[in-house]
Write a structure and sequence with these properties.
mainly alpha
């Protein structure tokens, strides 16, 4: 695995630092998937888990969409992979699901997230609300939450990658 991640500057302002760490964790997940075959990206950790690297990328596309489109910008953006009948649909891969589509969708959601976030200050309150709790958040909270979300799932990605081909790394 080649490591092209960039840690944020140690003396950056708060917004630059938060955006930098979020991008660092986005890059980490991409790095963990780099160089694998379609079959390897679909490989689940251990039974009965269906967790795979492709499933994690699809999940993060949903997370990016949920926080930066639905909550932050109050966009009426429906789910990508899940349904009411299958709330974990992003992890349930079918034969027709491809890495190319999953990666492109994830990257598209990241670009939309960046555009939407650029319209807000760190203390600005979201235009939308959390779908279950009805809460509103400031952008600072969203960035912090997304860093946590990626960091947690990157731990899963570490284990999945090691299981697939033995590669490890920070």
């Amino acid at each position: 695995m080649t490591n092209e991640r960039r840690e944020p500057a140690t003396t950056a302002d708060e917004r630059t630092m938060l955006e930098g760490w979020l991008d660092y964790h986005r890059q980490t997940l991409a790095w963990k998937c780099e160089g694998l075959t379609e079959a390897q990206l679909r490989t689940a950790a251990v039974e009965p888990s269906e967790l795979s690297l492709m499933g994690l990328v699809r999940h993060m596309a949903e997370v990016e969409r949920g926080w930066f489109r639905k909550v932050l910008a109050a966009e009426d953006a429906g789910p990508i992979y899940y349904t009411e009948e299958d709330p974990d649909g992003e992890f349930h891969l079918s034969e027709s699901d491809t890495w190319e589509e999953a990666y492109a969708t994830w990257q598209s959601e990241i670009e939309t997230a960046r555009r939407n976030a650029a319209r807000f200050g760190l203390d600005d309150i979201t235009e939308g609300k959390h779908r279950r709790t009805g809460e509103r958040f400031n952008l600072r909270w969203l960035y912090t939450h997304m860093i946590e979300e990626y960091a947690r799932h990157n731990g899963h990605a570490d284990l999945l990658r090691e299981r697939v081909d033995g590669a490890t790394g920070d």
